[in-house]
Design goal:
Blueprint: E1 3-8, H1 17-25, E2 32-40, H2 51-77, E3 85-91, H3 96-107, E4 111-114, H4 116-124, H5 128-136, E5 143-145, E6 156-159, H6 164-177, E7 185-191, E8 195-196, E9 199-200, H7 201-214, E10 222-228, H8 232-243, E11 247-250, H9 259-265, H10 271-275, E12 280-283
């Protein structure tokens, strides 16, 4: 089955982190389709339109098309074929975060991939309303956040807690890794006294393995790790950096208040969002 990824693009060639992550993560590109998205600035309201604004709109479109062509060229250099890469120029009418979410929902993509520039949009607007959009909204696609991913990294760290959201995340990891055979997966349970929330850590890991196998990942590609740590965010970052994982996958909500939401609004203060570098963060 084909995997279709939406990858956001900026005009800065040096900031094509999302593009390069996708190109480097998949050793073989068969069954992968990529749509590159560039958002132009908000168009003026009708009564504000004049010759100057029309000129600026045309200039923005030209910049966007150049950025899309550069990003496409980068993917072709990394092994994609011409007919696997599509481009989309979208005039922005909402906030950039909401525009990406709307495009991701409308396009039925298997994941939306955001690079450093997209992350800066989110950081700039990171307040209560954006937190709700990211963690409590109705968007139903996985989101990959790429801050300076390192191309030589391998494998996926999947952080599990036995919740429905965690299980959905594992479905997504299995769907991607069934194609990306060059990567294995480690199931990580951040435990307190043998429990992940109210669940037994060992049972959470066994259930996680079953879901991955059901999704097409062979047992020899699945490993386990239990860390006894009060702060999930610190534990995840330390493990990701120590073992140099290419991606860290977390469910968007979890047991109780939600693992990911705790990481973002608790004492770790959004550490995973702002401090995870080298590896992509997959929210599913």
């Amino acid at each position: 089955m084909e995997r279709h990824l939406l990858v956001t693009v900026s005009e800065k060639y040096d900031n094509l982190f999302a593009v390069r992550f996708v190109g480097n993560f998949f050793a073989t590109k068969e069954e992968i389709k990529v749509t590159l998205l560039y958002l132009t600035p908000r168009p003026p309201r009708v009564f504000e339109a004049d010759q100057e604004t029309e000129f600026q709109a045309g200039k923005s479109e030209a910049i966007g098309r150049k950025a899309l062509n550069q990003a496409k060229g980068e993917l072709l250099k990394l092994g994609f074929e011409e007919d696997q890469v599509f481009t989309r120029l979208r005039p922005r009418r909402l906030s950039k975060v909401n525009e990406i979410i709307q495009e991701g929902s409308e396009g039925k993509y298997d994941a939306v991939v955001v690079g450093r520039r997209g992350l800066s949009w989110m950081e700039h607007a990171f307040n209560e309303s954006v937190t709700r959009v990211l963690f409590e909204g109705t968007w139903d696609f996985p989101l990959w956040l790429c801050r300076k991913p390192e191309p030589e990294r391998k494998h996926v760290l999947a952080c599990v807690d036995g919740s429905e959201s965690s299980n959905r995340m594992l479905d997504h990891v299995a769907f991607i890794l069934k194609q990306a055979q060059n990567h294995d997966v480690t199931l990580l349970a951040v435990s307190r006294k043998g429990k992940v929330g109210e669940r037994n850590a060992e049972e959470v890991l066994k259930k996680g393995r079953a879901l991955l196998v059901e999704g097409g990942v062979s047992t020899d590609r699945i490993r386990f790790k239990v860390i006894h740590e009060v702060s999930p965010g610190k534990a995840i970052i330390k493990e990701a950096n120590g073992q140099r994982y290419a991606a860290v996958a977390v469910g968007r909500t979890g047991a109780g208040m939600g693992l990911l939401k705790k990481v973002f609004v608790g004492s770790v203060s959004r550490a995973l969002f702002r401090e995870l570098e080298g590896a992509a963060l997959w929210l599913a």
